[in-house]
Batch of 2 targets.
Target 1
Amino acid sequence: MIMSGRAGRPAHGERGANGMGTVRYLEIAEELRRAILSGEYPVGARLPSESDLAARWSASRGTVRQAVATLAAEGLVGSSQGARRIVLRHERRHSFGELNSFAQWAEGVGHEARGRFLSRTRRPATPEEAERLALAPGTEVLAALRLRLLDGEPVMVERTAYADWVAAAVEAMPEDCRSVMDALAADSGVVAHYGEHLIDALPAGSEDARLLEVRRGSPLLRQRHVSATRTGRPIEWSDDRYRAGSVTFSVSNSAVAAPLERHPGGGEHR
Amino acid sequence: MIMSGRAGRPAHGERGANGMGTVRYLEIAEELRRAILSGEYPVGARLPSESDLAARWSASRGTVRQAVATLAAEGLVGSSQGARRIVLRHERRHSFGELNSFAQWAEGVGHEARGRFLSRTRRPATPEEAERLALAPGTEVLAALRLRLLDGEPVMVERTAYADWVAAAVEAMPEDCRSVMDALAADSGVVAHYGEHLIDALPAGSEDARLLEVRRGSPLLRQRHVSATRTGRPIEWSDDRYRAGSVTFSVSNSAVAAPLERHPGGGEHR
DNA sequence: AAGTGGTCTAGACCACTCG
DNA sequence: GAGTGGTCTAGACCACTTC
């Protein structure tokens, strides 16, 4: 039931007829993922060989490889040449949106997120902001201070510099806007595509302490990050400080893919 | 000057004659990486099309795609369907070893790392340790307390539970062993292939404070991680606490690849 | 020695971006 | 509408693990 015809195209329909959405290797990945998450393949188990999987789904080996590569990128399975792939974990990985947006993340893990702008002021970018946002030194940015609540509890203070070209849109948002990134996408068509994150710890300053209702000097987990559009244009540079114990970041890596780095000192790039 | 012959094999040599090491797509990736890092392609610039690159290297489009996929995984370039790939950053990404091994990392960034075992005791695994190490409850592990120095300064306290099957090897190491993972690889052939990392912040306990020479309650950056072999067998489960300001973790992600996650609360998996 | 993943080719259609 | 990346096929050789 594979086909013939042109050249490596399914008999007719499959993908030609799908018109939208259906991507073969993602379907295969999704089915495999479900099998893994359901425990059908326990941790440590060996997956069927690529040829077996290809036969089972009437797909080419290349497509199957792309499917398992997806799972490998999620940290669910691992592989080493010559041996069958093995199951590493059973946990589901979150999406990009859930990492870049506090609100999307909270929703994804079943909590209620709120936010309130405490201030929004236009001022010239600091040298660091200008560099992170790829703006000419001194360009005006919108500096925002925002308190984020999770299930009604204050858990994070967010200090964000928005690039000049989105400043007006952010200024126009209501004070209790739930998700700036969602609103930017809906209103202005500005969608974050890339992110870079720097994670460290620091003591709470007096403003941090007051807003988060902790003692001054108590530990905070800081996530600084820049978001950029599909074309690599930076949207915002943010300094988010979480109350200790309120969140944990997790990353999985392997000898063939190491997404996480560690830097000495203050996280300066050079 | 491509070839003919059998079926998609270079004329003769190229890869058949390499015998070892040379992998086409990695060569291409390396050359492109160098061009990016050298500034030949500035941030925001568009890369040549896949066909151009394929022609330039006399390789197939698939091979070129694998090369740029490597760079994309490193966060150097991004892509979106229909548009040329763009350069996102100029920083080099570190290797897996540099993330999993304090000593390898320090060396990679040009600092001098030392370590000293303060204690090594065998005791039954705690429930959490047993789960993380995939051991039967109560199995004996080797619990080690270790102080890590960077350029002579104490920066990290490491509390590690080594799985029973590597305990003897670790016990036999000298007290001032520079890198346990390196020694394990050299002496026992045990190589870490996979890692999972949980990152959060917490206040220094009294032992932490004494060893790191900071005040009790001052902020620490904690990285808990498990390392596993190629077959997915856990080697060690470790709780590493860094003095605030001494290190920063960094991750880059994109809408198509999000290696980092955020969890509410104490970082428990469920 | 058999099996399996890693690499590579050549060619095709589709979805999307850009000018 | 041309160009470009995304998906897919079919088949091949190689390096490595496993039995």
Note: The longest strand of chain A covers residues 113-124.
Target 2
Amino acid sequence: MSIPRLLVVDDDPEIRSMLTQFFQQNGFIALPAATEDQVHGHLKSGRIDLILLDVMLGDENGVEICARLRREQDVPIIFVSALSADHQRMAGYEVGADDYIAKPFNPQLLLARVRAVMQRARRTPSLAYRRRIRTFRFGGWVYDGKRDEVHAPDGYQVSLSQRETALLKVLLANPHIPLTRDEIAAALDVTGSGDKPEAQGRAIDVLVGRLRSKIEANPKDPQMLRTARGVGYVFACDVAVEDEA
Amino acid sequence: MSIPRLLVVDDDPEIRSMLTQFFQQNGFIALPAATEDQVHGHLKSGRIDLILLDVMLGDENGVEICARLRREQDVPIIFVSALSADHQRMAGYEVGADDYIAKPFNPQLLLARVRAVMQRARRTPSLAYRRRIRTFRFGGWVYDGKRDEVHAPDGYQVSLSQRETALLKVLLANPHIPLTRDEIAAALDVTGSGDKPEAQGRAIDVLVGRLRSKIEANPKDPQMLRTARGVGYVFACDVAVEDEA
DNA sequence: AGATCAACGTAACATGCTGTAACAAAGCGC
DNA sequence: GCGCTTTGTTACAGCATGTTACGTTGATCT
């Protein structure tokens, strides 16, 4: 392979040039971009091997940009977030980013991550089919990311609806962290159309209730999917994660 | 890992420079900070591996600062308190500090604690996933921190509301120490939103009454949850604590 | 002792949040 | 089109929590 070409997308000029220079000094061809339009321009005009994308691009939501890029072209994307709180939360969003890195980052770690993602991208036949495949184990239960199935402690398979599965995945990605209804709704909508910004009645409550009825031994006294009164919901259960392929 | 970078937060210039110099002589990069703003500045501008935070920062409450920092970024925090009474009290506050150290401290002990916390932080994937899990035993009763349940001496499970449980935990963390209503209220709010600074009627009294009615054999003549007339309430009962994983 | 007053206990009420059944709308396969 | 599933909406009931009001207790002074 020739010299890897990398696109640095950030609206802060300082960070942008800092990152660009850093990668150039480390043997990459690094191109700066400040807006989504510029990104599209670069993608059309030449080969790009990887995109470093800031989560907060001005008032634009990086998550949505990522989803759009993914729909359009098959480029590995690494998210860069200012807050590690975002960072954790990102894991729940099914936007298909290949990795997440929180600022401030250790330069060596950043390089390692970038190389790892590019390695992986090279090995994998078609990026478009790639997603984060992860298997979660929690209190006897298993969510098998490969088959997108949920198995009860007794081994039987439980059938969850799409929405219920999505909710479960958001929760599994954020164990012990209280999530507000808005945050959950945002995470769920990213997979879909992504254009329902505000409040939507009690949809989340009902969804939570339905999921409880399927995965809680005693739905009236939930042990895992607890409610955080005045806040939202928490997944109060330790979760083991296995990344696959 | 490179040289560890440490932030010393204290509003007393003397202690601040004393600590800073001490750590610098022991191979750390130690940065002084006097206010929360300065802390945020340092966090934004560069890597910080650990924060040493004074409990009393002027009139600001260190506990709340800690909670805010935790929400924002994932840095290990060690509390430093002037009074060991505070020290004990801290244990009840669920702020997620990684350790507590009382002044005056043994320099070697301090170093050891700092190194231990940094070790732990390195091993642990994400600090935010960590919580203090503790089980308390008091006069036949058991509070099981893992399941967040309370069991009566006869083995039956007692159902406490969230608020009642929170109150119980504050009391258990401070046995034999009279707590004022303000202190209790502060401790209870830290877990929540953290933005109800002042007096709130008789809420604490009523809450105490409700807890008594559930855990006292004879609520009219409380043996554990005693009132300290003119002060507040005391948990007059020996408590055994077990920390878990 | 008795009077007095502040602190405390608690029942009753007010409010807000949550769980959920029932219904409606939308999507899907046949 | 028809039946089935999924998902969102609404309405109502129940619970958790804070507030108020009033009776009781306990300390202090005379």
Note: Chain B has two domains: 5-129, 133-244.
